[in-house]
Prior knowledge:
Residues 157-467 form the DNA methylase adenine-specific domain. It catalyses: a 2'-deoxyadenosine in DNA + S-adenosyl-L-methionine = an N(6)-methyl-2'-deoxyadenosine in DNA + S-adenosyl-L-homocysteine + H(+). It comes from Nocardia callitridis. This protein is 47% helix and 11% strand. By secondary structure, the protein is an alpha/beta fold. Helix 12 (245-257) links the parallel strand 2 (238-241) and strand 3. Residues 5-10 and 176-180 have low confidence and may be disordered.
Amino acid sequence: MASPRKKSAVATTSRARLASVIKSARDTMRKDAGLNGDLDRLPQLSWLLFLKAFDQRVEQVGPLLDPDYRLAIDAPYRWQDWAANPDFSGAELKAFVNDKLIPYLAELKGAEGDADDPRNVLSTIFKDVTNRMQSGTLLRDLVNLVDEIHFDSSDDIHTMAFLYESILKEMRDAAGDSGEFYTPRPVNRFMVQQSFLELGESILDPACGTGGFLVQAYEDLVQRVETDTQRRRLHNDLRGIEKKSLPYLLASMNLLLHGIGAPRLVRENALLQMRDATAADRVDVVLTNPPFGGEEERSVVERFPKGYQTQETSWLFLRAILDQLKPGGRCAIVLPNGSLFANGENSIGARIKKKLMQDCNLHTIVRLPQGVFAPYTQIPSNLLFFEKGQSTEEVWFYEIAPPDGRRGYSKTKPMQVEEFEPCVEWWGGVKREGRVDGGNAWMVSAVEVEKSGFNLDFSNPHDGEELAHRSPDEIVTELIKVEDEIRGLLEEVLDQLKGRV
């Protein structure tokens, strides 16, 4: 292996240059016969970006900050040893990556039980990584392009994170066809904002996917950091669990790009992880959008107490979270309409909601319109906010209405963060003061919920009030708008069908 090329001491990458490099990288991967679509290309790009960023932001900086810092990766497996060498190419490079580099990284062992040891992070990521590129020459071209990206400054990190998230969005659209659901950024932002996070609080997403909630929480809290101790504590307080290897890799890269060198992510079945948790593992805040509509295997279901055993994943997540929270802890969780509905007082869903309302103050349910999670699903969803330690006396509902008389959202017309602003104004701050019943908001007592068999699927009682005071002209105009929207949606469906022919 020839010696790597030397680079200037200071290197920066503009947003335009980064966009150009990423485009060239994707074009290069499209030429390789081993990669089929973004579901192959993005993981390939991500693990290479991860190694480049890790080398520059962790391995090269670590010894400067800590004289006792131990390099996580030994030569010749460091990025600067092999990737920065333009003469190392073709079959020789491909064999090195496949037979030596990836196996070496997958077998790294850090200090046992040390979540901050980067070797543990690297081995967890790379035990499922595969180089899918068949051409060693194209692999060399891709590595050269990644090596042009620099992470020397905070501006570089923010720019790369911005571009990476835009690629992630495209990836999520493709993943939706394979059953993966992701939370739109406006929903992430609203849930984090209305959780009123504080520095020093432990924050968990037990279904972290590509890390959207954790990144949003970090962006919210890092603005308040004033010392290195606070920064290290913040990095340690952001925790995620992800079952699948691809989202785990993408989340690790996402957090690294936001400045977290050793993300506290666990690749496990979150339900088992939470059932095995001790009191020391409990957290202050849970922010999550658990998978719903799926079924857990019997061995997982049997880990739950009698009377709460169900194969419905969303119910199990909700039940597990109740034990995962510290006393006084709080949660913001996405649940589908079906989870609010209870088909009988003795159903498992009703029992879980009864326990929720006995153990926690379920103070707010935000009802989302249809299509917020398009293109993955048209199922209407809800955001539940609760605090552990005090029983529920009343539940406030707030219904988010689509703009301009629309009935819902679509992939081409997604929800915008500004559409949560009326709800934020109504919320009443951290103490939820001054809430008013009327319009989009209404309150239901815990007694009413109990009488309904713990059915939380309450519709807005004020829906007919506005209609009763509208003129015939307004109603007809509204109907025309609805017809136009339906026509637009049907045209979208038609275009998609044509595209499959």
